[in-house]
User: What shape does this take?
Amino acid sequence: MFNLPARFIGTLTAAAMGASLALPPAKAADDTIKVGILHSLSGTMAISETTLKDTMLFLIDEQNKKGGVLGKKLEAVVVDPASDWPLFAEKARQLIEQDKVAAVFGCWTSSSRKSVLPVFEELNSMLFYPVQYEGEESSRNVFYTGAAPNQQAIPAVDYLAKEEGVERWVLAGTDYVYPQTTNKILKAYLNAKGVKDEDIMINYTPFGQSDWQTIVSDIKKFGSTGKKTAVVSTINGDANVPFYKELANQGIKAEDIPVVAFSVGEEELAGLDTKPLVGHLAAWNYFQSVDADANAEFIKEWHAYTKNDKRVTNDPMEATYIGFNMWVKAVEAAGTTDSNAVIDTIVGTSVPNLSGGYATMMPNHHITKPVLIGEVQDDGQFDIVYQTPGLVVGDEWSDYLPGSKELISDWRKPMSCGNFNIASGKCGGVTN
Amino acid sequence: MQLNRSLSVLLLMLGLCFHAAGASAQSSGDEKLRPLIQALAGDNFDDTTKAVSDLVRTGDPRVSMILNALGAGDLYVTKADQTVFLGKREGADYAASDPLTGAKLDPVPRSAAEKIKVNNRLRRDIAAAIGGLTLMSDDIAERRSAAEAILKTRDPGSIPLLDQAIAAEKDAGVKALMQQAKAAAVLNSEATDEVKVAAIAEVSAGNSRDALGLLTPLESVGGPVGEAAKAAIASINSKLALWNGIQNIVYGLSLGSVLLLAAIGLAITFGVMGVINMAHGEMVMIGAYTTFVVQQIIRTSAPGLFDYSLLIALPAAFLVSGAVGVVIERGVIRFLYGRPLETLLATWGISLVLQQAIRSWFGASNVQVGNPSWMAGSFDLGLLTLTWSRLWIIVFSLSVFAILQLVLKKTMLGLRMRAVTQNRRMASSMGIRTPWVDALTFGLGSGIAGIAGVALSQIDNVSPNLGQGYIIDSFMVVVFGGVGNLWGTLVGAMSLGIANKFLEPFAGAVLGKIVVLVLIILFIQKRPRGLFALKGRAIEA
Assistant: This one.
């Protein structure tokens, strides 16, 4: 009788750990190239990251159908870092040291990326990071295939100012590094464009905020001075639904105060009551509704692979697609999966993106992207209302922040520096 | 603005000669309209806007129909020969018809056509154009939205139209709205100062927040108009300051009622039984998922009952969460009574297991729980905007609280529960089967958490993480209110809610939360047993 509790706790702990256990790596074989997938399959971030794991498995499957890479089949090694930032570093180490993967595709939050960064630099491996982020970073071992702030936030603000005539800005975000840095850049940008401080309202909320009454009523107040007002939202995934619901409930329509969001995509809208969101905007580099043959083909194959024709596609999936294809192309050009060789070869590699153009890996390890603005439709898809005329190059060190203005990154030899200060002419201009 | 002005004047004339337009005139207008409709499919929004104004200028009565279709996103253009048609999705094709005559055309494959893009600005212009047309409509809702559209655009060109509409209007509410719209338009026009000052008085009598928006730009004008605007703004601001205080209290009560709902189940399992139940949040989550399943069943088998789905979900959620609670108590917790640390670890493990189970079963993404129509929207109380969902949740949480009090004080189960928690041995000697009372008490607490889940599904995301967001707040409320006292939970939840809302405007949401936490820590130092400490021997045991 008294042994029971201990046994129960044992079972429970085992069960709890089972949730975060990695899929066992398949048998080692010399005729395969291993690819690591580092996305949370449990915990808070599973909602977003599970899809990217599926995307990677799908891409690897497709590549193997085409004969693999360098005549070898690709083999996926999936681990689950369970939305736990230190665990990301542990799992990354495991992938590189034990499983000997050639490259790793993974991470979503900046915190997880910052956590694995030293591991990749120490072990000289490669990470492809597929999510939009705040910039202010460049590493020789990381390839940023998501958007930098100038590839998402700034064009969105330009669109609102030009097309909607917005003069007053609410910068609302969740309280962590991505919204804070993005808002800092946006505020500097708006100030540079002549917007006064009293026309900018910055508001931060905790993760998972669900009570938006006061904030929405503040936004309403802020927007009632006769000047056209818009909200630029870097509110993180889960807190968005109650935010939009409160907006709709308090009678604020997209025509009155439009909200442009940087973290709301098709995946977040799937399984949501989209009525309160119709007409609000999102800025991304890809929408499922993009009208291009490459996209139609991709969606068709994705539906066939997942055996579910309701599965949506989204921007980080496209970034994963681009990153994976760049890696494949660079490995084939280098003739080896050796990190140093691939890192040197990959700069300048161009692969098709899903919106009918090409993405090129730049010397700063960021890529070129078109910027799209879409309005939410009642079917959870986006109606694209604007597209930048050309491609935008990702700017790792923002041109609008003091201290980062003078920095550039160029990983080509002989410079090979992630923070070259053009004012002082030295590498490592700012300790970061 | 330019567009709106000319647009509504034309629409006025158009409305007047609506009935006079004969069939012969229409067919001759067709050739004139065709190229204009074609021009709607321009390369950018400026082109489309111009095409809209050109269309309105023709004065053809069918224009409003075409603009409506454009605004609703039903106009498409073929990629091959750039023909504009009225489309409707039908499988892989668009069922096409002529936008002018309505004649049926051959279906167009989806890939061969493109939607004519409409953005918020264009939609606003279209609404204003249509607003001019529908001011005299027979439908009261249409007249209201027409007046609202003009109030937004403040188009001076629509003043004659409004005069006419005000004279004909019978409904007092819509009439007041039209007068507001007219005053707003006058302020935007070249009228004389006396007229404008009168308009300022008219505007400041209405909804103050909108009035501020209209008056602020006038402040810098100077002269009698500027003076009047300044005075009006000052009086509105002082009125708003008073209402701000009221708003904080009401919003605080609403936040407090959410906290109360989340915590009230815990007040039973932790407060009354003393079990540190980290899986409490997951009981709430299971209740929310039960709501989802109930709605899913209703959607497929009896869509007519959707408005009652929450009422059906309530007992279901209570039973499901309650049953899970009983299983947890019987299976795990009963072996751990008196060992709080192990209970904490075990229930935390259970919470992870439950989360992952739901995640594997329903998927990691949010599931969609709909709002019944009576939960959507808002109403104005003075200068306060109250949403129906929040109001219902206040009412609901107070009734749950009252019912729970009744159960504890007036039923046999409640009596036994109190007996067991106060003196287990004595109760046992009196013939009460204490293990079963424990199980039922835990089940009751869990079931109430499930009911809370039904309510929270209306204002929050339903995802496997739902419960995590509430567990800390729930413990905070119970500890602050005083463990073992339901009234303490009520007062604790409400005062935390109101304190939060008064701090938020000054400190921001993040700092506000921190300040509340610090205050609670200080309070607990002073009164370790919370607001309403239980007295008596039971406490010492």
Q: What stands out?
A: The two ends of chain A are 58 Å apart (CA to CA).
